[in-house]
Amino acid sequence: MKKIFSLFLIASLVVSTMAFPAFAVDATSSATYPAPTTAPAPVKTTAPAPVKTTTTAVINTSNLPAGSVYTVVSGDAFWKIAKKYNLTIDQLAKLNPQIKNISLIYPGQKIVVKAAAATTANAPAPAPAPVVTKKLFHGFGEAVNYRVRGEQKDNLNITTASVIFDQDGKIVDLTWDVLEITYAMFPGWMDTAAATADPTIQSTFVKGIDDVWETKREEGYDYDMTHLKAKGAADNLTKKEWFEQLDYFEAFFKGKTVAEVEAWFKKYTDANGRPYKLAYPDKLTDTDKIAISSFTAEESKMLVDVTTSATMSLQDGHSHFMTALKEAYAAREEVK
Fold first, then answer.
1. Dist CA 309 CA 302 (whole Å)
2. Alpha-carbon distance 286 to 304, whole Å?
């Protein structure tokens, strides 16, 4: 029995020894059995700083001088510059045609933010003035007067006026002329017996109308009011021929109405229808001097200018220019 108990005791010790070895634990076994570690210190977190937002002040370009430029700085973008100056991207691009790619701008670059002032060279052409259509009128007047001079010096004068008037009655263009019919133009005139005795007189007269009759304008220098041809030297005051003096009057009256021409004629011409000769004081009569005494310096200067170029009458036995002008106005018709 003791032998069986001993054997049991020995077996128990063997089993006990196998389960719990009697030697120290090697440090190398820590990989298999890790030692406990200390918990890491908690991470200290701080709330992120609030984002600081800034707004770029918009610049009113109307307060900038013409031709103002902006210098690009680092961080700029084309759209930002446009926004800063209250412009659209297209508007800023049109101000800067030299920038071919608005996505590529660089620090130091100059960008125009307000157009330069317009100059004569680059200013846009002004819009054409609206066309105002004015009506024009044409009138033809004729005044006939017979001048008795005796000794076969009588003459029949046919004065004509061809005039263009505007819708306000102002003279736009004026042409006066006179056909002076004399005895010399009528072979056998007032001589019935001679005309009866010589049948050719009639045909000669008709031929003369076709070949010889000319108005004073058509005669030109041959009319010889200056006596240049007859005497070899001009001896009239202005030294100007008949048609030259009439040319001056026609130009002088342009822009005036018939009523204004009549008023001028009434105030500034003498009893013979001639303008007061202020360019030739020694030719003024006592009556003339009384008439001109009330003229202003400006009126006197005007008459000096006129009579330097023209002293012929505008209404006398030779010709009725004023009457023909009024007839033309009365007969005017619209030019279509």
1. 11
2. 18
What is the Cα Rg of the chain in Å? Answer: 59
Q: Report the C-alpha dihedral over residues 311, 313, 317, 321, rounded to 10 degrees.
A: 140
Summarised one tens digit per residue, pLDDT across range 119-134 is: 555 556 677 777 667 8
Identity of the residue numbered 173: D
Domains of the chain: 61-112 (3.10.350.10), 137-334 (no CATH)
Question: pLDDT per residue over 144-171, tens digit each?
Answer: 999 998 877 888 999 999 999 999 999 9
- Torsion, Cα 39 41 44 45, to 10 degrees, reads -30
Residues 195-226 pLDDT 10s: 666 666 666 655 556 666 789 999 999 999 99
**Under 8 Å CB-to-CB from 259, ≥6 apart: which residues?**
169
- CA contacts within 13 A on the Cβ side of 60: 2
Taking CA 164 as the corner, what is the angle to CA 161 and CA 165, rounded to the nearest 5 degrees? Answer: 115
According to DSSP, residue 170 is labeled B
Q: How far apart are the first and last CA of the chain?
A: 166
What b-and-e string marks burial along 263-285, b requiring 16 or more CB atoms within 10 Å of the CB?
Answer: ebbeebbbeebbbbbbbeeeebe
Distance CA 207, CA 201 (A): 10
Contact by Cβ (8 Å): 92, 85: yes
pTM of the predicted structure, to 2 decimals: 0.57
Show the tokens assigned to 164.
């263009």
pLDDT of residue 19: 41
The DSSP code for 255 is: T
Beta bridge partners of 215: none
| Structure-block tokens of residue 138 | 């044409």
Q: Which of 173, 151, 148, 169 is nearest to 161 (CA)?
A: 173
CA distance 300 to 278: 7
